[in-house]
């Protein structure tokens, strides 16, 4: 079993079965008679966000690429493993590879490993996110050839140059889909006096978000929320151009991170990147015209990986199954 424990989504890949689980990294906890217990995880928990009564708390235990609440994260991992297994149990000697956010500390990594062990895994190994993303995107990570991957997740963007199964350069910036959602929400608040929740902001990004300005106003979308002045439920219409303008700042930070990586890459590897170009993975890579924006900044060919949302889980699964990638896995 391979698990991409993302700050926004958790994806589980199982040998011979493929992707068996793809759900939001959200957990809902219920307090009954002073005792807190897990109510639901994943899709059902996300539906509750922002709408819970006082005794239920729906939360994301991973934020900004780090684990905000270890105990709760552990509970969530255990529930996801059980959900992925269904009625089956872990086969004897079952191995699990978990891809952790690169900002995770040693203590957090140990907690994640313990959660998988407690759920029944016998051997738990970890893999770095950009390495898994590159393997999942089908990049030549085992060859003596430089390849650049940019994984744009919810909490972080990881930029890495890989060669010979090692990471020649990597950097992580705390900008990703979440930051994009926040800038959209604050734009709507400032420009339209409308308060919107994070789920609505994400919907706007998926619907009409873009990394570069459209010709004219572009697409339009109706957005509902609470009016700041009247306090009443209210709706407004916003345009793709407005959203693209709001996204200039987070997209600019991604562009800068890529430029910094190129500036810090050894010349021989740079030469390879000219030929290979840059591959974008992660859900953030699906933002409309982000590939164009990165290509404009770098002057290099840029492509969005097929299955961008699943590259990390597919790569972690391949690393587990194919001995040529064994060097990418580690135990502590
Ligand atoms: N079509 C789309 N357009 C723009 N953004 C998208 C699209 N589809 C998904 N996303 C965004 O991708 C992000 C989630 O990506 P992903 O699942 O790769 O992150 P993660 O692995 O959970 O996060 P991290 O890598 O930071 O731990 C979310 O912010 C989501 O809104």
Structural write-up:
The structure is a single chain. The chain has helices at residues 43-48, 70-85, 106-118, 129-136, 177-192, 198-208, 240-246, 248-263, 267-276, 290-298, 311-321, and strands spanning 2-5, 9-14, 18-24, 27-32, 35-41, 56-59, 62-63, 66-67, 95-100, 123-128, 147-152, 157-163, 166-173, 194-195, 220-227, 233-239, 278-281, 302-304, 329-330. It folds into three domains: 2-25 and 60-130 and 313-330, ATPase, nucleotide binding domain (Nucleotidyltransferase, domain 5), CATH 3.30.420.40; 146-175 and 249-309, Nucleotidyltransferase, domain 5; 177-248, Actin, Chain A, domain 4. With 332 residues, the protein is of the alpha+beta class. The chain is built from eleven helices and 19 strands. A hairpin with a 4-residue loop joins β11 (147-152) and β12 (157-163). The strands form five sheets. A six-stranded mixed beta sheet has the order 3-2-1-9-10-19, sandwiched between helices. A five-stranded mixed beta sheet has the order 13-12-11-17-18, with helices on both faces. It has a three-stranded antiparallel beta sheet with strand order 5-4-6. The structure holds adenosine-5'-triphosphate (ATP). Adenosine-5'-triphosphate (ATP) is lined by residues 4, 6-9, 65, 101, 153-156, 176-178, 202, 205-206, 209, 282-284, 286-287, 309. This is Cell shape-determining protein MreB. One of its GO terms (molecular function) is ATP binding. Forms polymers.
């Amino acid at each position: 079993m391979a698990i991409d424990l993302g700050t926004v989504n958790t994806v589980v890949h199982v040998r011979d079965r493929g992707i068996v689980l793809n759900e939001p990294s959200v957990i809902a906890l219920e307090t009954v008679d002073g005792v807190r217990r897990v109510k639901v995880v994943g899709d059902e928990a996300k539906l509750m966000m922002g709408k819970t009564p006082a005794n239920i708390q729906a939360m994301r235990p991973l934020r900004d690429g780090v684990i905000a609440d270890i105990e709760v994260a552990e509970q969530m991992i255990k529930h996801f493993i059980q959900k992925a297994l269904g009625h089956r149990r872990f086969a004897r000697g079952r191995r699990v590879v978990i891809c952790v956010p690169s900002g995770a500390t040693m203590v957090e990594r140990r907690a994640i490993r313990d959660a998988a062990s407690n759920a029944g895994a016998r051997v738990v190994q970890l893999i770095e996110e950009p390495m898994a993303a590159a393997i999942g995107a089908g990049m030549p990570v085992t060859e003596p050839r430089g390849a650049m991957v940019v994984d744009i997740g919810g909490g972080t963007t990881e930029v890495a140059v890989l060669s010979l199964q090692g990471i020649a350069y990597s950097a992580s910036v705390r900008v990703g889909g979440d930051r994009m959602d926040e800038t959209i929400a604050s734009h709507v608040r400032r420009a339209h006096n409308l308060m919107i929740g994070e789920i609505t902001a994400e919907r706007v990004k998926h619907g009409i978000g873009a990394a570069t300005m459209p010709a004219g106003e572009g697409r339009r979308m109706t957005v509902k929320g609470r009016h700041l002045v009247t306090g009443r439920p209210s709706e407004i219409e916003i345009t793709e151009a407005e959203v693209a303008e709001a996204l200039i700042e987070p997209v600019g930070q991604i562009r800068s991170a890529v430029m910094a990586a190129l500036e810090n890459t050894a010349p021989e590897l740079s030469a390879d990147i000219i030929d290979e170009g840059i591959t974008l993975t992660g859900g953030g890579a699906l933002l409309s015209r982000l590939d164009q924006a990165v290509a404009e900044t770098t002057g290099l060919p840029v492509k969005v990986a097929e299955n961008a949302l699943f590259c990390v889980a597919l790569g972690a699964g391949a690393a587990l199954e194919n001995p040529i990638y064994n060097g990418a896995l580690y135990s502590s």
